[in-house]
Write a structure and sequence with these properties.
The complex is a heterodimer of chains A (386) and B (440). The longest helix of chain A is centred in the N-terminal third of the chain and has 16 residues, at 87-102. In chain A, helix 11 links the parallel strand 11 and strand 12 (330-333). Chain A is of the alpha/beta class and 386 residues long. In chain A, 62% of the residues are buried. Helix content of chain A is 31%, strand content 23%. Chain A contains 13 helices and 14 strands. The termini of chain A are far apart. Chain B has helices spanning 15-23, 55-60, 67-78, 85-100, 123-128, 170-178, 194-207, 225-234, 270-275, 304-317, 335-349, 362-365, 372-379, 382-386, and strands at residues 2-8, 30-31, 44-45, 111-115, 130-131, 138-139, 185-188, 213-221, 260-268, 282-291, 326-328, 357-359, 388-389, 405-406, 412-413, 418-424, 429-437. In chain B, the strands form 5 sheets. In chain B, strands 10-17-16-11-12-14 form a 6-stranded mixed β-sheet. At the A-B interface, strand 4, helix 3, strand 6, helix 4 and helix 5 of A face helix 5, strand 6, helix 6, strand 7 and helix 7 of B.
């Protein structure tokens, strides 16, 4: 299914203000930690005209990338709340809390909207295993045994872990968020849609403040199994996880809240058709033509930014990217430092771009993501000013 | 503008069946038939009247599927897509909406905004992949096939395709492929508010010029092993195994009944609908969204957050409380929801909140979870199509704690110009959508 329209970004005029970011990724907690080693070094080569510089690091661990110290993090959730939460929900609780805190906003957040990309459910496997084990009779799974025994083998709280919307709702309850909300299932593309929906909500005056982002983990055993059985890992995915949340507001509102971290100038989401994978998740084409057409448009769009952060799920797409000469911008390959965190990947890449804007004193950054759903998301930021 | 609607639920397999059943005050809650729920605490549901819903079901309907569409349906069947009942429901409803709106090649530019609830977990797959170990067992998620000793003949489902669970967006992917939709695809994951939010997102896309036409709605079925078990553990369903188990706003109410099905709409800009001569069914005039930010399962008791969603919808549509002709309530039949929603209606509308007719169709079809908001918005077309306000099945005894004007079991004849549909989700997501009569 070819892309049938050009790179038609939704441009925000005036731009929206990014007040703060909360992030928990394999690079660490907080925006300051989101700096790949490669981005701290000076360039040994002078870039050729028309050739984007693709920086590649070797930060990737063999089995994937992890948020290794979640248990040690100062966690806004109580012990009881944590029992209700999937790992994605716990990651988001930290990121969302940090986003509100670093924006120096005070509760109540009655007027604060929340728009997020979320991934698959992630109920505790010991509960699920116990439920299944006690639902087996001599012939295998038995509905009768489920009702008699299996049902009672798992915690009643298990249900909260398997509801995808609770990735956000635990945080919304904890922080008292009261504005509009919407959650998009995402393997990349949905997170770009969450950002667009948040921007529309602000523009329409539905709320004066919005939190937007995503949380997900590719390490949940069931998800990991799906990815491996489908051949996704063989296509070059390094499984990862994380959560990121940006607080957004209008520029007019931002003037009363301090200097924004950055400005969100445009975003877009381009479906490229279901050409990446079959319905059961089996990889069919790791670099489909329609995706490369959209990526080409996204890379070459003018005016060019100073930095482009690319998060492309497959090795084939990353190899294709490395061979392109479409832009003079510095290109950061986000996958090499963040891995593939499914729904969370675009939001983690936004934070990487925001960090690079500051670190390199750059004036503009573009984030280009292509996740397992084959959709291409494009987001543009400028350095903050009021 | 809404220019097409398709419905699959316990009351029938088309919008015409659905409207006719609502008009006569029918209800179809009964013992679960497509699986053995006799040992579960939940034994009744609003079940779609089909034991299985697959490619055969779709191809036997009076739909004009092309050869390539038929091939896709068989491919989906081979991959095990229809193990997840909500996907068959979704495709049936979508096909009806597509045909009703007289969509063709030009409409394939449509975006997609669909709420699809949770993944369906296939517990027989988990059992087949259970590996004994010193801790009592673990599930091997990697094996391409179940272990031989599990006895493949016991598990007749295809193991080569979708295993353990269907992904949340699977239905959206099949739908987009079936209709060759080229627009943006969104799969909402907002639980019981998902259907309403998917439709609000569709309207927002059109309002902001991101799309001219959107296929939107919701599909869900938790009438499956883990769905029934999970809801039972939450304690939300009524403990009674009777056809009147769900009694919204009734003094004796004691819980919800799980339903299943789908409702799909074709929504397009008024200019586009007019230019191609599509018959408008209603105008999505406003919507409002909010979060309770209060509790995982209990609604905010004063209904203040839900009231904000209703007020936003009214404000956006420039409709005063006194002008509102009907509210289709979320009305789950749980003790807490119905009181909180009554408070919310009164808070949002003031004095008009005690007068405007309110009903819930969940007593008749059950709670369709992610599809509830979509099906209930379809019910909101009944006043425009047939000048009838749906009744509230099994509502017989008024509850003083629900001080609103509930339409009891008998549908009410009325010509109204504006209607409001409420959807509130576990976790506290709220959405209200306001429809205006197309010719108003």
């Amino acid at each position: 299914m070819p892309v049938t329209r050009g790179l038609d970004l939704t441009t925000f005029s005036p731009p929206l203000a990014v007040l703060s970011a909360g992030v928990l990724s394999p690079l660490g907690r907080g925006l300051q930690a989101q700096l790949p080693r490669s981005a701290t070094t000076s360039h040994a080569t002078t870039p050729q005209a028309g050739a984007g510089r693709v920086e590649v690091t070797t930060d990737v661990a063999p089995r994937g990338l992890f948020v290794t110290d979640l248990e040690q993090q100062e966690d806004p959730a109580s012990a009881r709340q944590r029992k209700l939460m999937s790992r994605s929900a716990r990651l988001l609780a930290v990121a969302l809390h940090d986003a509100l805190r670093t924006a120096e906003l005070s509760p109540p957040y009655t007027d604060c909207g929340a728009f997020f990309g979320v991934g698959s459910s992630g109920g505790a496997l010991p509960d699920l295993t116990a439920l299944v084990r006690r639902s087996i009779d001599d012939h295998g799974f038995s509905m009768k045994r489920l009702g008699e025994a299996g049902l009672y083998a798992c915690s009643p709280l298990f249900s909260f872990q398997i509801m995808n919307n609770f990735t956000l709702c635990h945080s919304a309850i904890r922080e008292g968020l009261g504005g509009p909300s919407d959650l998009f299932f995402s393997r990349g593309g949905g997170t770009a849609q969450a950002l667009q929906a948040a921007a529309w909500s602000l523009q329409a005056g539905e709320c004066s403040l919005c939190i937007v982002g995503a949380a997900d983990t590719a390490h949940y055993e069931m998800t990991d199994g799906e990815l491996r059985r489908g051949g996704v890992m063989n296509a070059g995915v390094v499984p990862s996880e994380g959560a990121a949340a940006l607080t957004l507001t209008t520029q007019a509102q931002a003037t009363t809240l301090g200097k924004p971290l950055a400005l969100l100038t445009s975003c877009a989401h381009f479906p490229c058709g279901d050409v990446c994978s079959d319905l059961d998740g089996t990889v069919l084409d790791a670099a489909p033509q329609a995706t490369m057409v959209a990526l080409t448009a996204a890379l070459s769009k003018t005016p060019q930014p100073d930095v482009i952060v690319c998060a492309l799920w497959s090795q084939a797409l990353r190899t294709w990217l490395a061979n392109q000469q479409l832009t003079d911008a510095l290109i950061i390959n986000a996958h090499d430092v963040l891995g593939e965190a499914l729904a969370a990947t675009p939001a983690l890449a936004w934070c990487l771009a925001l960090r690079l804007l500051d670190h390199r004193q750059a004036s503009s950054a573009r984030v280009i993501c292509c996740g397992l759903d084959g959709a291409v998301g494009v987001t543009e930021f400028q350095r903050g000013s009021t | 503008m809404i220019t097409g609607v398709g419905v699959v639920c316990a009351l029938g397999l088309s919008s015409a069946d659905f409207f006719a059943a609502l008009q006569r005050g029918a209800s179809n809650i009964g013992p679960i038939k497509h699986l053995d729920a006799s040992s579960l605490p939940v034994q009744v549901a609003g079940e779609v009247p089909l034991l299985s819903i697959d490619a055969n079901t779709l191809l036997q309907r009076d739909f004009a599927f092309s050869t390539s569409q038929q091939d896709l349906l068989w491919h989906a069947q081979d991959r095990g897509v229809f193990r997840d009942r909500k996907i068959g429901c979704l495709l049936l409803a979508a096909q009806e909406a597509w045909q009703m709106a007289r969509c063709g090649a030009a409409e394939q530019a449509a975006s997609l905004s669909i709420a699809l609830g949770l993944e369906e977990a296939f517990l027989e797959d988990f059992a087949a992949a259970m590996q004994p170990d010193s801790d009592g067992g673990r599930i091997d998620f990697l094996s391409p096939r179940p272990p031989a000793e599990a006895g493949a003949q016991v598990y007749p489902q295809p193991y080569g395709g979708i295993r353990f669970r269907s992904t949340v967006d699977l239905g959206a992917r099949v739908l987009a492929q079936l209709f060759a939709l080229r627009g943006v695809h969104a799969a909402q994951a907002s639980a019981c508010a998902g259907g309403g939010l998917a439709i609000a997102h569709a309207a927002a896309q059109i309002e902001h010029g991101a799309a001219e036409i959107v296929m939107c709605g919701g599909a869900d079925s938790m009438v499956n092993a883990l769905g029934l078990a999970g809801m039972a553990r939450l304690g939300a369903p009524s403990p009674r195994h009777t056809s009147d188990a769900c009694r919204p706003f009734d003094r004796r109410r004691d819980g919800l009944v799980i339903g299943e099905g789908a409702a799909v709409f074709i929504v397009e800009s008024a200019d586009r609908a007019s230019a191609r001569g599509a018959r408008p069914l209603a105008h999505i005039a406003g919507w409002g969204r909010s979060q309770d930010g209060y509790h995982a399962t209990a609604p905010r008791p004063d209904g203040s957050a839900a009231a904000r969603a209703m007020q936003q919808a009214l404000r956006k549509a420039a409709v005063s409380p006194a002008q509102l002709g009907y509210i289709n309530a979320h009305g789950t039949g749980t003790p807490l929801n119905d009181v909180a929603e009554s408070e919310a209606i009164r808070a949002a509308l003031g004095r008009a909140g005690e007068l405007v007719p309110v009903s819930s169709i969940k007593g008749a079809v059950g709670h369709l979870m992610a599809a509830a908001g979509a099906l209930e918005l379809a019910a909101c077309l009944l006043p425009f199509e047939r000048a009838i306000l749906p009744g509230t099945a099994h509502h017989q005894q008024r509850d003083p704690a629900c001080a609103i004007n509930v339409i009891a079991e008998t549908p009410q004849a009325a010509k109204v110009d504006t209607v409001l549909s409420n959807s509130f989700g576990f976790g506290g997501q709220n959405v209200s959508i306001l429809l205006r009569r197309a010719d108003a």
